[in-house]
Design goal:
Blueprint lengths: L11 H13 L23 E7 L3 H17 L3 E7 L2 H14 L5 E5 L3 H6 L7 H6 L9 H5 L2 E2 L2 E2 L2 E2 L1 E10 H7 L2 E2 L4 E2 L4 H15 L5 E4 L6 H11 L20 H15 L10 H6 L3 E7 L3 H4 L7 E5 L9 E4 L1 E4 L8 H16 L1 H4 L5 E2 L2 H4 L2 H4 L4 H4 L6 E2 L7 H16 L5 H14 L1
Parallel strand pairs: 1-2, 1-3, 10-11, 13-16
Antiparallel strand pairs: 3-14, 4-5, 6-14, 7-11, 7-12, 7-13, 7-15, 8-9
Length: about 425
């Protein structure tokens, strides 16, 4: 169970509600439902009001709401009013609000979406304003911090990284003889063949109906795994040419990575037609799961689940894993006062300095001092993958990147359902990206 002392008392009822929300949330990721605005206390009626938009799921939103409420309770000068929306339409709503002059005072923006917001002038340059209220950019993990910097200027305060990691059910790994009892870690021979052998031993040992590796046959998960493995290769990881106008991922390294992913599906190491890989693992019906860090907070509440989590194994030349970051950005709008700007950055500073609270959802905080803090290191599991923040493989900075990922998803799905080969999937995806 998580140490929740830092966030105030949680009742058994709260934990139960959180568990139910997480089980029902698709992928347990950032696809939240719309929630009521955060309430303010009577003592804050004269405070500076900040409208804060977020796109979190049931699990992430529970932790974020706790943080907002704690910030509001600790001081009287600023009241943050949080509005949470579904990720499906979050960015279209945010863009519309910015263009209409009705933008929130502060908003969560993923680094994958940031290029479009920077290019179009939708968010403020906060370089000097953040420093004026005491945000020290040197205190952030360089890899996370760099994802918010454009032409040497800072456009958001990074809150975290949430990367792809490997969860495993210790009971099934123990049955297969691939669990180191001394460390509680998986025993995996080197390389791609070593990982396939690891899953093969699990398949041979576990009961029928237990997935050796749980990943859905549709949606983005296979793309995340491919991008991770492609970036592990020497010379891999290219998506566009230097001009950013032509796709370059139809190449031998990318094909090797995608062929490996396809083989996991084709050989049944990933069983066919999995819809909800998160729930399968949560319910104890999968031995291994590739999912983002956000699953950690949920799995800690799963009854009878004896699990562990480690970074994605290095199957090729060096460590790399798909990842993204939540950032706190100030949308551009008329009438944004200096007072509100300072309040928004004061709130952002508090959020990143209390990153151990957000880490309870599973994310790795952006500030190095938080990752090194006693409060963070008291949390189970997070320390097992915190180093991933140093080698997260972000998507390239392209204004259309979010929609281009949809192209990959569709082509990879056709591959998984044996409608085309990995070679055809990459070729078709590259041609469609070029046509966008």
């Amino acid at each position: 169970m998580m140490d929740r002392n830092a966030t105030g008392s949680w009742t058994r009822h709260s934990a139960l509600v959180l568990t139910v929300c997480l089980v029902l949330a698709a992928l347990a990721g950032c696809s939240g439902r719309e929630t009521p605005e955060t309430k303010q206390s009577p003592k804050q009626q004269d405070a500076i009001r900040l409208d804060y938009w977020t796109p979190f799921s049931g699990g992430d939103n529970q932790f974020m709401t706790e943080m907002v409420e704690r910030f509001n309770a600790e001081q009287d000068e600023i009241v943050v009013v949080q509005t949470n929306s579904r990720l499906d339409d979050y960015y279209s709503r945010l863009r519309t609000a910015i263009l209409a002059g009705n933008a929130p005072d502060i908003a969560i923006i993923h680094t994958t979406s940031m290029p479009q917001f920077v290019q179009n002038g939708y968010i403020e340059d906060v370089t000097e304003a953040a420093q004026e209220i005491g945000i020290d950019w040197s205190q952030f993990t360089p890899n996370i911090r760099e994802a918010t910097v454009y032409n040497g200027r800072s456009y958001a305060v990074p809150l975290d990284t949430h990367a792809l990691v490997m969860y495993y059910n210790k009971t099934y790994l123990r049955e297969a003889g691939v669990l180191d009892e001394a460390t509680g870690k998986p025993v995996i021979a080197p390389g791609a063949d070593g990982f396939k052998a690891f899953l093969g031993k699990i398949r041979d040992a576990v009961p029928a109906g237990i997935a050796p590796l749980s990943m859905p046959s549709t949606r983005i998960d296979s793309v995340w795994l491919w991008w991770s493995l492609y970036n592990q290769m020497k010379g891999g990881g290219a998506f566009f040419d230097g001009s950013g106008t032509k796709a370059t991922f139809d190449n031998p390294e990318a094909l090797e990575a995608l062929s490996f992913v396809n083989d996991l599906y084709a050989t049944g190491l990933i069983p066919p037609d999995i819809n909800d890989s998160f729930k399968l693992f949560y319910d104890g019906k999968a031995a291994v799961l590739m999912l983002g860090m956000w699953g950690t907070g949920a799995f800690e509440n799963a009854p009878d689940l004896d699990f562990g989590v480690v970074p994605i194994p290095v199957l090729y030349d060096h460590s790399a894993a798909w990842g993204d970051s939540h950032t706190l950005a100030i949308p551009t709008k008329h009438g944004m006062t200096e007072e509100k700007r300072r309040a928004a950055l004061t709130f952002s500073k508090w959020m990143v300095e209390h990153g151990e609270l957000w880490a309870q959802a599973g994310h790795v905080p952006s500030m190095t001092k938080v990752v090194e803090s006693e409060a963070f290191n008291k949390l189970d599991y997070r320390g097992d993958y915190a180093a991933v923040a140093n080698y997260v493989a972000y998507w390239p900075r392209h204004a259309k990147q979010w929609s281009l990922i949809e192209v990959l998803i569709k082509e990879f799905e056709r591959m998984i359902y044996k409608e085309q080969t990995p070679e055809q999937a990459l070729k078709n995806a590259a041609e469609k990206v070029d046509a966008e």
